[in-house]
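Re: the 271-residue chain
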Amino acid sequence: MAIAALNSAASGLRALSTEIDVVANNLSNAETNGFKASRVNFEDLMYMQLKQPGTISGNGDVVPAGLFVGLGTKISNTEIDLTQGSPAGTSNPLDVAISGDGFFKVKVMDSLGDGTAYTRNGAFFINNTGQMVLGMGDGYQLIPSVKFPPGTTADQVGIGQDGLITITLPGSTAKTTVGQLQLSIFPNPQGLKLLGGSLYQQTDSSGAPLTSNPEANGAGLTLQSFLETSNVDPVKELVTLIETQRAFEMNSQSIQTADQALKTIANLRNG
């Protein structure tokens, strides 16, 4: 049985090592706008059945419980914490936070799936051709695209809670509509593929997105001059890190104990 204990403890060390990696990634992104923390879910492995419950004992009684020895643990999945991060005010009119459900849709490299991705990071810019682009990576273009007239500056841009984008030209009080922000909602956002750069991609597990204007069909609203901060709780992550470290140490102790038991058995054989 000491061999089984070695393997079980080793599986625990492998799984806990991965959890430490996930927690470390969460903490490293505590200041990343739009970042969503991940949580590790564990599940137990197979069991050795040494006694079947419900069998008949020598006295003719039904055995009330069986005897099973587990073979360790593994990581079932990593779950995305979709809790909304706190909106932080900025001085940039092109910054947009989503209050509620939904993702911005952007165009990425064609080699990445279908060439589209989704994000909660609303740090937008106006590029050299007047397109409204995401201020990450190479400047991912919004879908549907928003193009401003030549010479438009950020302080002329207005973005409503319904996602309507307008500009106010110098010397005029009239607002001109130039585009419309849209938000995408997934049936199972936990099934999204993480690409890095606060980008997510649709998968068969996530389902096809429902895309609509903000404040429609369950989508959230858009807040101009705000950015959604990371939803990482450093205190919670540090507590998880300490718990994981202690569990790691206990699994190490299990390996040492099993090793000592095998050593004792070997000495008995030699004796």
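The CA atoms of residues 88 and 162 lie 19 Å apart.
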